[in-house]
Write a structure and sequence with these properties.
Number of helices of chain A: 10
Keywords (chain A): DNA-binding, Signal
CATH topology of the largest domain in chain A: Rossmann fold
Order of helices and strands of chain B: HHHHEHEHHHHHHHH
Helix content of chain A: 25-40%
Structural class of chain B: mainly alpha
InterPro entries (chain A): ABC-Purine-Binding (IPR052910), PnrA-like (IPR003760)
Order of helices and strands of chain A: EEEHEHEHEEHEHEHEHEEHEEHEEH
Number of helices of chain B: 13
Number of domains of chain B: 1
Strand content of chain A: 15-25%
Number of strands of chain B: 2
Number of strands of chain A: 16
Radius of gyration of chain B: 20 Å
Pfam families (chain A): Bmp
Number of domains of chain A: 2
Largest interface: A-B, 52 and 46 residues
Protein name (chain A): DNA-binding protein
CATH topology of chain B: ABC transporter involved in vitamin B12 uptake, BtuC
GO molecular function (chain A): DNA binding
Shape of chain B: globular
Radius of gyration of chain A: 20 Å
Oligomer: heterodimer
CATH superfamily of the largest domain in chain A: Response regulator
CATH architecture of the largest domain in chain A: 3-Layer(aba) Sandwich
């Protein structure tokens, strides 16, 4: 039996409907930034929760809260979970970083896992992320090959390191094929608003881009691209159903192996704080089928994917200059993890001013 | 700017403005009757999921629209029974209607996630749609767009030029006097609430059948609240709602274009422009006491119990 918790967060209030629960060995709880039905970021995390249920059955009780706004509400939600007997809490958005650490300090016996962050202020906080940027590099290469105008549109959410890294990696991939490639970046300032994302997509297409990529969570931009007859990349989930003639590939987040492993560690008492950053090689990031492109482009993409998996290719390898033309990485030099995780600058060639 | 780009931009603006316009028009009628229904967001999202589902099952976007309208009206009836017959607090009831709608639509729509929707086809009006720019923007749109324009005119005419509209306003301004004159206050309010619900449902259908033909939870993303703000923004006058909705849409789209053009203004500031504009107008309106007094329904939000 699982405890099923579903929440709707409105202005400030939230209500909890809880079913009955039988005694389980551990309780794993998840906090999502969007609705599980976004078919993007939160949807994929929820698939991870389902995998945990599948793997441990009655031994693990699960609970989740969806659409939890980043900020003060998040702290309340995390604390509520900590009080309700959760043994491990996964907080799955960058903006939960400070609330997670704050609550973790108050509940030393509860394990906290924060996605995409870099702060581990107490022993019971671990961080984990996936190297989505590896997929963005491949997308950049495909975009440079497929775009006739040499301009791609990039719908971004918030100027946090993860998103900036993605833009830079996309740009580096594109430049490796076409040094003059341009990217137009539009900040939607939301993770999830299908209408707004569609508006951003339309505006970019009207501005003349012929390839669209997104770092927001809904399938709306893919649909707009399909309607307008240009190509696009899916985000977080395979969005091919929304763009049969449009999707080139998609970066798929697969959190299931990690969640199953970490809940397992809680069950057998081996859980320890760590910071992991898995990518294509470990299967946490996967590419959807390369479609709607000529065979040679697909072959190139596959080759790049293999090279990244084997470690032969690392997108952030010098020589790379920063946007202002100053040197960042020398020939052959690789970016260190600290700079990667806190990335707050663009590489040369990105045609946008990074919001601060 | 070439005519093609201008047309595309206008079309995008119209698409962004239409759901706001329809939902706000419905709420205007509700508030003119003296009832404040804060459940627009919930009714809208229920309309969106019903519209999507009905279109998915029947294969017809038009049946989706009909279903969304009916669903919105029935959902608002729940609000009506609570606030009108049982005289509950309108603000609290409206808020719970929103929460209920968001939750219930998520449950109803669970199986619709990840399905591409049925898109409502555009209807080209012969001859008129051939006019450059204007023809494309005004005369080759989808049915809901045409409804939104006709609805604006119809509601303006109804509220200010008909006897029934006068009755509606009198109930909203002073329900005790209206009652004394023999007007069935609760009946008028029930009809107004249901009309508002039907409009919100239709606005929701626009989201899931035209704007972004898909179902995702919370897909209204706060548009119901913007519609509510628009009613005040327009000081309860239908034609001003059109201006407000299109202004809001235009600023939203303009900021995306400014960003894509690389205008060196922080994107956070650009994103907040539509909301800043709304606040400025609200401030301007509220400083003009006379106009506020003249237009605000005096009984707004006050419960009426006939036998008291």
């Amino acid at each position: 039996m699982k405890k099923f918790t579903k929440t709707i967060l409105g202005a400030a209030a939230f209500s909890l409907l809880a079913g009955s629960a039988m005694a389980a060995d551990a309780k794993a709880c998840f906090i999502y930034v969007g609705p599980i039905g976004d078919f993007g970021w939160s949807y994929q995390h929820h698939q991870g929760l389902l995998a945990v249920e599948e793997a441990y059955g009655d031994k693990v009780e699960t609970a989740y809260l969806e659409s939890v706004p980043e900020g003060a509400d998040a702290e309340r939600a995390i604390e509520r979970f900590a009080r309700s007997g959760c043994n491990i809490i996964f907080t799955t958005s960058f903006g939960y970083m400070d609330p997670t650490n704050k609550v973790a300090a108050k509940f030393p016996d509860v394990k906290f896992e924060h996605a995409t962050g870099y702060k581990r202020e107490s022993e019971n906080v671990a961080t984990y992320s996936s190297k989505f940027y590896q997929g963005r590099y491949i997308q950049g290469q495909i975009a440079a090959k497929m775009s006739e105008k040499g301009v791609a549109g990039y719908i971004a959410s918030f100027p946090i390191p993860e998103v900036v890294r993605g833009i830079n990696s996309f740009m580096l991939g594109a430049q490796s094929i076409n040094p003059d490639f341009k990217v137009k970046v539009v900040w939607a300032n939301t993770w999830f608003d299908p209408g707004k994302e569609a508006d951003a997509a339309k505006s970019l297409i009207d501005q003349g881009v012929d390839i669209l990529t997104q770092h927001t969570d809904s399938t709306a931009p893919m649909q707009v691209a399909e309607e307008r007859g240009i190509k696009a990349f899916g985000q977080a989930s395979d969005m091919i159903e929304f763009g049969k003639k449009t999707q080139l590939t998609a970066i798929i987040d697969d959190w299931a192996p990690y969640y199953v492993e970490r809940v397992g560690a809680v069950l057998d008492g081996t859980w320890e704080s760590h910071d992991v950053w898995h990518g294509l090689a470990e299967g946490n990031v996967a590419m959807a089928e390369y479609s709607n492109m000529p065979d040679d482009v697909a072959a190139m993409a596959k080759e790049t994917e293999e090279k990244i998996k084997s470690g032969e290719l690392e997108p952030f390898t010098g020589p790379i200059k920063k946007q202002d033309g100053s040197d960042w990485l020398a020939e052959g030099e690789k970016a260190d993890n600290g700079t990667m995780l806190g990335m707050n600058f663009y590489v040369e060639g990105v045609d946008d001013k990074l919001p601060q | 700017m070439t005519p093609e780009i201008a047309t595309a931009i206008f079309l995008t603006i119209a698409t962004a403005a239409t759901p706001l316009l329809i939902a706000a028009l419905g709420e205007l009628v509700v508030e003119r009757s003296g009832v404040l229904n804060l459940g627009v967001e919930g009714m809208m999202v229920m309309g969106a999921v019903t519209g999507f589902g009905a279109a998915q099952i029947t294969g017809s976007a038009y049946l989706g629209i009909v279903a969304a309208i009916i669903c919105g009206a029935l959902f608002s009836l729940l609000f009506g029974i609570l606030t009108l017959s049982l005289a509950t607090n309108q603000v609290a009831t409206g808020l719970s209607l929103t929460l209920l709608g968001l939750g219930a639509s998520g449950m109803i729509g669970e199986n619709f996630i990840g399905l591409p929707g049925v898109k409502l086809k555009a209807i080209e009006i012969p001859l008129l749609s051939d006019i450059p720019v204007i023809g494309k923007v005004l005369f080759s749109q989808d049915l809901i767009f045409y409804i939104s324009i006709l609805l604006t005119i119809a509601i303006w005419y109804f509220v200010f030029r008909t006897r029934a509209g006068l009755t509606l306003r009198s109930v909203g301004d002073n329900h005790t006097s209206a009652h004394a004159l023999g007007i069935n206050v609760l009946k008028v309010r029930y009809l107004a609430v249901m009309f508002g619900g039907a409009c919100a449902g239709l606005a929701g259908a626009h989201l899931s059948l035209v704007y972004t033909p898909q179902w995702t939870e919370n897909m209204t993303a706060g548009r119901g609240w913007i519609a509510l703000a628009l009613v005040v923004f327009a000081s309860w006058r239908p034609l001003r709602i059109v201006a407000g909705a299109y202004l809001f849409g235009a600023v939203t789209i303009a900021q995306f274009h400014a960003q894509a053009q690389g205008v060196a203004i922080p994107s956070q500031l650009l994103s907040s422009l539509p909301y800043i504009a709304t606040i400025i107008v609200l401030v301007l309106i509220s400083t003009n006491k006379r106009m506020t007094m003249k237009n605000t329904p005096a009984s707004l939000g006050k419960p009426f119990v006939p036998d008291r």
